Amino acid sequence: MDVTVSATAGALLGLLSEKPMTGWELVEEARSRVGNFWTIQHSQAYRELAALERDGLSASTKEDVRGRRRYRITDAGRDAYLEWVASTPKDENVRLPFLLTVAFAADIPPARFAELIDDQRRRHTERLEQYVRRRDELADDDSPHGGGRRATLELGIGYERATLAWLDELPAHLGIDLSGSPHES
């Protein structure tokens, strides 16, 4: 059976190639590895898992009285995964909600804009700290996927540092003086 899988399905198959997991575990594992760069919602994961099972790329068993299913990759799923992971990725589709705010910054009072920048700075600082902690936790991971996990975190760390620097420069780019704002740090 020749089945083309989506990026989300490919990522789920990649995680299943490491070990069997429930849908919930798959989403949580995806979030811990690439969550801020590739999001997978629970509902989306379960739809993809149903399709993967229907197409013979995964199989599941009920594990407990709650009806949780543990999924595992099949041989056909491993073949589809290996084909997907070696294929040329599509172009990025970056969606940053704060950029919409920046695009219309002229319509926002400076004090409010300062609050929004402070909020973004807090969020990106927290994420940077989270990524650095996770990198430290994975420093000794010599598993086959350890290098990929660390490389993904390095991109996240670089992104968060670049975003924080950009936030510092943002008022000057927009010609907004926030120096009198109580929120300027």
UniProtKB/TrEMBL annotation:
Residues 95-170 form the Transcription regulator PadR C-terminal domain. It holds the Pfam family Vir_act_alpha_C. Residues 12-80 form the Transcription regulator PadR N-terminal domain. InterPro entries: Tscrpt_reg_PadR_C, Tscrpt_reg_PadR_N, WH-like_DNA-bd_sf, WH_DNA-bd_sf. This is PadR family transcriptional regulator.
